[in-house]
Amino acid sequence: MTDFFKDISPLRYDPQSDGLAFRHYNPDEVVMGKRMEDHLRFAVAYWHSFAWPGDDPFGGQTFERPWFGNTMDLAKMKADVAFEMFDLLNVPFFCWHDADIRPEGDSFAESKRNFEEMVDYLSEKMESSKTKLLWGTANLFSNRRFMAGAATNPDPDIFAWSAATVKNCMDATHKMGGQNYVLWGGREGYETLLNTDLKRERQQAGRLLQMAVEYKHKIGFKGAILVEPKPQEPTKHQYDFDVATVYGFLKEFGLESEVQMNIEQGHAILAGHSFEHELALASALGIFGSIDMNRNDYQSGWDTDQFPNNVPEVALAYYEVLKAGGFTTGGTNFDAKLRRQSLDPVDLIAGHAGAMDVCARGFKAAAAMLEDGTLEAMRSERYAGWDTPKGQALLKSDLATIAAQVEADAINPQPRSGRQEILENIVNRFV
Known about the structure:
Elements: E1 30-31, E2 34-35, H1 36-40, E3 42-45, H2 46-51, H3 72-89, E4 93-97, H4 98-101, H5 108-127, E5 132-137, H6 156-175, E6 180-183, E7 189-190, H7 198-219, E8 224-227, E9 237-238, H8 243-252, E10 259-264, H9 265-270, H10 275-285, E11 288-292, H11 311-323, E12 332-334, H12 345-372, H13 374-382, H14 389-394, H15 399-408, H16 420-430
Parallel strand pairs: 3-4, 3-12, 4-5, 5-6, 6-8, 8-10, 10-11, 11-12
Antiparallel strand pairs: 1-2, 7-9
Helix pairs in contact: 3-5, 5-6, 6-7, 10-11, 11-12
């Protein structure tokens, strides 16, 4: 045990509490036939919660954590603190990058040894905790070797290093019983076409993803392989810009039936979309998997990774999650970090607790909207003409036949209201 969270008691569901408690998130509350904990599948992000020092593009470290440093003893202290927080919050899952949990070695081999030792240490912690691994991933972006990309790097040695790192992280995820493995291209893009072979880089990225899928089947990993779209930041153009871009990429490399999406709210906004748009599109394409729940500051043009606090936005997101059938191996990972001035241990607990409450409120509103059925009924009514024999025949016809029919029947269609304001008013009844 550590004393980092001393004097903080495990959080309970208590709507009347004036202190640290869940006022809306009751893990045992049954919604649509299933416990809320099993619907939402909350996960804590190891990197933002325990590895991030509080820096930003204009300032350095503000957090002073007793486990900061590059030794195995400090890495184990970090793990001890992490599991104490998991227990205080009673969360079912957590997520990691390899670099979050192990010290950086002077060589690939040393980093691998450190990583494997920490995987064993975390596995021991998991034996006495309810908290399990939602997913693991490789940090292929922080070290300066990745400044020109990982899979897309012009140097084949860096591609090889990256592929070996992915292999080790997949092994670790499998060993720890992780339910997914995530790949996201933090540096997979370019700054200028003047020094970039775009076609070659796309082929390299596609091949590494193919290798990951091949290795999944080789080791018998039963979880999902997830790709997380990320636009613009930090490079001028990212190859995994949004769900639509990634789907085209998957189709190009024959992976659309093998890979699903891990969709982040903040990344959706940076791509010029809403979160619910990206979720709905992934569902329509059959590649919805999991989510990173956070928010951006809408006055800032970069990824601020703040805890969610907007119930209507969250409700619309979970509405699409529920319409997609809910999570299977995926879940709600809080890819969110404290503000640089939120220095105290209690801030870390409060940030997660508040976010869990916001998600619970939004989720219950989404479930109520879906069970009410008004929105779906109005949507179905709007497209009802396509369900008639005439409508279904149109898509099997040809231009000449359709043109002749329009003239013969003297078709003169008039527009119908989309009723957007009415639909928005209906949503507002629930949120």
